[in-house]
Amino acid sequence: MERISWHQYFMAQSHLIALRSTCERLMVGATIVRDKRIIAGGYNGSVSGSAHCIDEGCYVIDGHCIRTIHAEMNALLQCAKFGVPTDGAEIYVTHFPCLQCCKSIIQAGIKTVYYAANYKNHPYALELFEEANVRIEYIPLEKQTLNLLPKRIND
Ligand SMILES: [Zn+2]
Ligand SMILES: [Zn+2]
User: Distance from the CA of 72 to the CA of which of 21, 46, 81, 143 falls in 20 to 30 A?
Assistant: First the structure.
């Protein structure tokens, strides 16, 4: 029996979470992992209970949709809300995080960032990651990972 790797397992989780995104400009998912356990997940969407981009359109200012909380922030805030430590944890994201999220990831004590796609990778973010000794690694989601799904279901 084929078993998916840890990297593919967590990265596939982030891609699944991204399907819940409510902003059509970019659907992002994030999974925070500690000791090979998923401790939180997040997608980019509006503040709970507020209007969604998919219903009312994006609220764009200076080329950015300001309605949403980014996936990485939502995952970190889930930890804050429920009192789960993020120090020393890892994060799996579908897209390279924006500068604001990169700073929050560092400040939350996350030590490794795995991303499946480049997305405007900010040079200052790379600098900050290096300074803070945060490891960044490109882990694309392998097609093979998803191909295993229908195979298993039909078995
Ligand atoms: Zn939007
Ligand atoms: Zn962000």
Answer: 143
Largest CA distance in the chain: 50
Between 1-5, 65-69, 80-84, 151-155, the lowest mean confidence (pLDDT) is in 151-155
Query: Of 106, 73, 86, whose CA–CA distance to 33 is shortest?
Result: 86
Ion ligand 1 — residues with CB under 5 Å?
23, 53, 58, 65
Q: What single DSSP character describes residue 145?
A: H
pLDDT tens digit sequence for 30-53: 999 999 999 999 999 999 999 999
* pLDDT at 154 (0 to 100): 59
Q: Is 127 a catalytic residue?
A: no
| Catalytic residue selected from 2, 56, 72, 142 | 72
